[in-house]
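Quarterly update from the structural biology core.
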Amino acid sequence: MKKSSTRIDMTAMCDVSFLLLTFFVLTSTAKTPEVHPVDLPNSTKETKIPTDDIVTISVDEEKVYFGIAGREDKKDILQRMGNEYKIEFTPQETEKFAGMENFGVDIRELKQLLAKPASELMKVDNHQTGIPYKDSLNNQLASWVRNARESSWQRKESFLKVAIKGDANEQFGTVKKIIDIMQEQRQNRFYLVTGLRDANF
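Predicted structure, tokenized:
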């Protein structure tokens, strides 16, 4: 009896593997780094957060960081904030701002930040103070949220969505202050971002 060969041609399998790998690499989007990533509290509830018309407020160590989705949204909101605080931003500064994932500085220091090279914009050292929100005379967080809401409605006729990302060890009073700022503007619906954990945790 003639012995048959046990050799298997793997060429087709390799081709399919590389095609799939290429597809996933080309279609995936890289997550841009945040200025101050937070350690999220755990939850078993899984709800997908939208990616359009949303602002993200990150809270850690009683400091607040603000993130806006969409390059054109960022440009328009920055222009509105500049008008409110009598600060004129150049087109180059506006473009740099549009490339930032989030930020945590007083708007009066934003021009100094945008003067730095693009590689240094997201360094934690440049965002030490966070956005002012505790002082009723200088509540810049409320201004950012109000201008973002107005921009979203006037430009797209869509309601802005808000996501709050609080660090797992953050004091409740800090997060409550953020929620109070939202509610003063009748923004009563928002997402509280958590990390996913196992149901048996």
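The chain has a mean pLDDT of 84.
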